Amino acid sequence: MLKITSDLHTHTTASHGRGSMEDNVRAAVELGLEKIAITDHGPAHLFGVGIKNSEILLEQKRMAIALAKRWPQIQILVGVEANVVSQDGQLDVPESVLDQLDLVLIGLHPRVRPASLAAAKALVWNNWLARFRAFESQAIAANTKALLSALERYRVDFVVHPGLHLKIDTLALAKAASRCGAALELSGGHGAEREYVEKVLQTDVKLVISSDAHKPQDVGNFSKALMLVEEFQIPAERIINAER
Ligand SMILES: [Zn+2]
Ligand SMILES: [Zn+2]
User: Fold this and answer.
1) Which numeric CATH code is attached to 6-83+91-105+156-171+183-238?
2) Which of 63, 65, 104 minimizes the C-alpha distance to 84?
3) pLDDT in tens, 65-89
């Protein structure tokens, strides 16, 4: 059985998670993980889902230094699950803050404040229309372009749960991520469509398995991803946080 040594995508009360940073760290230590990352939702996420402002990420960085003294047995990283807020790939966290973080996760979610009117049309209106089949390809093109642009524009570690909320062209994304040195997530909490895994495996893009835990009890829960690893016989070499 494949062993995952780090959980690189977890949430706290700074976005809409239930536990503190220390709760997630404690849970990861109990599971014997080597690394845990705190990656709350970026500030453009509406209805209290996102962090209030990007400064919070820098506070979390300082907090991680204090926690590291109490929990020397684990490496504590601070990143963000940034939202892509325009078709030209703008993220909802300034680059000056991203530069100070340990890792940058990017993704698409519904109910996110777009960067401009043009972005609202491309990413909100198109996805609303996508409920009608005739408009689906238009939404897929817009979503994929936004992610590809962000991959070109920023140093991205991985793309979270591709295709989960908003549809994308998986093959195009996997090729671009591979070219840009970013990985794609295989979500332990959400799982993934078989079609997504099939397409990803047609390319040489790396994968990362994470829990996307929104409560401490879910830290290190990789079960839905591990079932897919088993089913598709994905080798450990493809997964950046698997034990070799
Ligand atoms: Zn997410
Ligand atoms: Zn998440």
Assistant:
1) 3.20.20.140
2) 104
3) 999 999 999 999 999 999 999 999 9
